[in-house]
Specification:
Elements (H helix, E strand, L loop, with lengths): L11 E4 L5 H14 L9 E9 L4 E5 L12 H12 L5 E10 L12 H14 L4 E5 L4 E5 L19
Parallel strand pairs: 4-5
Antiparallel strand pairs: 1-6, 2-3, 2-4, 5-6
Helix pairs in contact: 2-3
The structure holds tetrahydrodeoxyuridine (THU).
Tetrahydrodeoxyuridine binds next to strand 2 and helix 2.
């Protein structure tokens, strides 16, 4: 192949204590929200906290259902609530954290595809990036400046347009 293109993402990983006060506060909100998750089927608790442009913080957690697909991830509960309650206020940052009641989480915690796509939609809506703080079980934090770094080939509204 002649025209090769390499696509890379940049992840910054730092320890919780190195974060600024605002980011620490947002993650702390996500951590406390996680304990209120309704996750009787998976035992996997996820907390998300969203910081809005007006300084408001909305925290949420995953909500499960015996009919599994009826449940909703923490990230979407948080951003949909933000969109419903503050429709014209932008989202600055979303912090995400997780804990399992059954095992020690070793993998990197990152939003699922549906949540990533939903975060992408809000970036389009507000015409601006949403920072993402991925809080890990070792208390380190991955920071990306936009969901496009986690989902580089995401489906965008431009894809629906006929040029
Ligand atoms: N979950 C989230 O809340 N966010 C994600 O990005 C992935 C998964 C929840 C959904 C379900 O309640 C549990 O974690 C196990 O999949």
């Amino acid at each position: 192949m002649k025209n090769k293109k390499v696509i890379t993402s940049t992840f910054l990983q730092i320890s919780f204590s190195e974060l600024n006060e605002n980011d620490q506060k947002l993650i702390s909100n996500a951590i406390s929200s996680l304990n209120d998750a309704y996750a009787p089927y998976s035992g996997f608790l996820v907390g998300a906290a969203v910081l809005l442009d007006n300084g408001e913080i909305i925290s949420a957690n995953n909500q499960e259902n015996v009919a599994y697909p009826s449940g909703l991830c923490a990230e979407r509960v948080a951003i949909y609530y933000a969109g419903a309650k503050f429709p014209s206020i932008g989202i600055k940052t979303i912090a995400i954290t997780a804990k399992s009641k059954k095992f020690e989480i070793k993998d990197i915690i990152s939003p699922c595809g549906a949540c990533s796509q939903s975060i992408a939609e809000y970036e389009v809506k507000q015409e601006g990036n949403i920072r993402i703080l991925l809080h890990q079980s070792d208390n380190s934090v991955f920071i990306v400046e936009s969901i496009s770094e986690l989902l580089p080939f995401m489906f965008k509204s431009q894809d629906l347009k006929n040029y």
